[in-house]
Amino acid sequence: MEEENQLVQIRLQKLQQLRELGLDPFAIERYETTHTLDAVQEQFEALENQTVSVAGRIVAIRKMGKATFAHLMDTTGKLQIYLKADEMGERYDLIDLWDLGDYLGVKGFVFRTRTGEITVHVQEFTLLAKAVRPVPFPKEKGDQRWYELHDVEQRYRQRYLDLLLNPDSRQRLLARCRIVSEMRRFLDAEGFIEVETPVLQPMAGGAAARPFVTYHNALDREFQLRIALELYLKRLLIGGIDKVYEIGRVFRNEGISTRHNPEFTMMELYQAYANLEDIMDLVERMFRTIAERVFGRTTFELHGVQIDLAKPWERIRLMDAIQQHTGLTEADFETLERAVLSAEKVGIHVERKDTIGGIIEKVLEKCVAEHLQQPTFIYGFPIDTSPLAKREPNNPRFTRRFEGYLFGKEVANAFSELNDPLEQRDRFEQQYALRQAGDEEAHPYDEDFLIAMEHGMPPAGGLGVGIDRMAMLLTGAESIRDVIFFPQMREG
RNA sequence: GAGCCGGUAGCUCAGCGGUAGAGCAACGGACUUUUAAUCCGUGGGUCGAGGGUUCAAAUCCCUCCCGGCUCACCA
């Protein structure tokens, strides 16, 4: 702590004075409260003139000589308190040792002031903890606030300040928590079992991404941090857990942007005996239920676009969507040469490592996605970018895979899962060839997983949802950092 | 990785070659129902870091650090 900071010095001196008076706030362990701050407001009729005991942080003080008003804040809200000098005796002078940000417990009776504000008339108080560093609480009047914490860097690095000072940030981040919690509740009610699978993996698979690598001393070997949940959840499906899901952190060693954080949260689920259409229905139900429970509505607006999650999602075949928005047809992607030409025709830069499927997905991202504002399932993904999905029976270049889009952004990815171990082996071999050709993000060849599948995997539908992006879309966040409490930052 | 913008008091910002400013917060004083309380007064800064140009740099130039946005990369 920088000793020279005058504001800190003054607060430390106040702490010292409190200690000399035998009122060390940091010696306090508990404080008995009867009500939360919003409960006092809500139950005013019953509580008027009754004694209550409440606690919170001091967020405003107005001392007017022999009378003082202050506001306390807790998780639930704010409440005004009132102190009178002639009732407090010499204890009244202790108010001078309070600062914004300190924690205060008070006991007193509830009344309404002349101007109508519900207030606790304090008879006893205890300073419960001191903020020795200033907390810049803003001035407030109604919904207006002055001098908020604007500095974006500080809001991310010192999120506790952002949460205290910016109600919008607080609501957005708490909404994310509730989305996760309601997703659990929904899936549990649907009969899914929640599990936990390894984060440290010998070989991170299940997605196309570069992993973080770490080292285990005792085993003297490297491990990778997982990039997806898929392959271990499928092992559990093989193990007889017919409806299984996990909500967990995955790690991808890639760039940071407004839509990418190196660690983010995925929900993946697998349901035996279910196919792609069953999963589409599940996604519709899940998004609708979460919206209703977290936000109390199914309509959302972003950048002027309105959507309603109570309505069924549109279902469009990928190649039809591409044709609709670019005029390119399936024949235009028949061979790699034609696919490259077609992509360049619509202004897409193709890399050497791109496969036909990779090019098709680029066309989807660059030319089609922005048009998928309304809830939409795009299905029929190319085989070479979907090595874990079943083939379409009459169109073997494509798979039984869909992505769900909201506001032009992908929020869900699902397949009828490939359960043929012979074909899975072939698919891994194709990925291996891509890797040999220089594609660092090709799926790894996971022999242990193949052996598991050879023991028999049921037909199943699977789903992955990026929780962070889902939270962004439902809360209208522009950056993924606004829905992650502690986003990744460079060393400051 | 590239381009643009930014970093000045605890917070929000102004100043953009001539001795560092405002509001809020803090400190002292007045004030017994205030609520952006009010009124009077006071203190507070390595102007992101380092180098350069200049009689003189927060200000101009260079390098670096941190952040934001856009693009690239990436589910």
Can you put this structure into words, describing what you see?
It is a single chain. This protein is α+β, with helices and mostly antiparallel strands. Helix content is 32%, strand content 28%. The protein contains 15 helices and 21 strands. It has helices at 6-20, 37-42, 44-47, 85-88, 152-157, 159-165, 167-189, 230-238, 276-295, 318-326, 336-345, 356-368, 421-436, 447-454, 467-475, and strands at 51-64, 67-74, 77-84, 103-112, 118-129, 139-141, 144-146, 193-194, 200-201, 213-216, 221-225, 243-251, 263-272, 299-302, 305-308, 314-317, 376-382, 391-392, 395-406, 409-416, 460-466. Strands 8, 12, 13, 16, 17, 18, 19, 20 and 21 form a nine-stranded mixed β-sheet that branches. Strands 1-2-3-5-4 form a five-stranded mixed barrel. The protein is elongated. The two termini are 16 Å apart. 36% of the residues are buried. It binds one RNA strand of 75 nucleotides through α1, β1, β2, β3 and β6.
The computed structural class is alpha+beta
Radius of gyration over all CA atoms, rounded: 29 Å
Q: Termini, distance in Å?
A: 16 Å
List the total number of helices: 15
Helix content: 25-40%
Question: Stretches where pLDDT falls below 50 for ≥5 residues?
Answer: none
What percentage of the residues does DSSP assign to strands (E)? 25-35%
Task: Round the mean pLDDT to the nearest integer and report it.
Answer: 94
Write down the overall geometry.
Answer: elongated
The biggest beta sheet reads: 9 strands, mixed
What is the number of beta strands?
Answer: 21
